């Protein structure tokens, strides 16, 4: 019995009517597949260009140092892009934080634009202090030094100052190096600058007594 060694595509290649019809059907099938693939690629490209994502943006101008409230931000749909990949996507991620720079209305919110609002550490006291220098660059959460411009308490005035001295250096007295800024500095109509800080109890006594005697300077670290 003779084995048939004719390859399966031989019928398609025969110069017969049947072969021509098979080839025509294959050409139409290939054209349909190519057209379908082209449509799929086109739709995928359009979808990529029109894809959107929800991000948090400022609903108003937010000043540097402000604590961000829920009314200050909103969610919007923006075109997905590399510029919005790291933008915040939940309002709760930004509400209660502090703006580290001036943030304009409609600007997307990024983690680098804010910092956590400070909380009074256990064992510390919060006090509002009048300072004699410009502290407009300070932000809530900064740690600063408080220095008395009149020097540390000499022996004859120790009782007046609560018998609590500080670290004296070059005619000044460092009252504390660990004052935590709790809020934005405020300036009254008369030009008096005050700032709220959280300090250790002994430092609080030194600061209050020194403020009664002379100027206190806030030094950014």
Automatic annotation (TrEMBL):
Xref: InterPro entries: SAF
Q: Which domain of life is it from?
A: Bacteria
**Which Gene3D superfamilies did the record assign?**
Antifreeze-like/N-acetylneuraminic acid synthase C-terminal domain
SMART domains in the record, alphabetically?
Answer: SAF
Can you give the residue ranges of the SAF domain? 53-115
Annotated coiled-coil segments of the chain? none
What is this protein called in UniProt? SAF domain-containing protein
> Whose protein is this, by species?
Bifidobacterium santillanense
Q: What is the lineage of its organism?
A: Bacteria, Bacillati, Actinomycetota, Actinomycetes, Bifidobacteriales
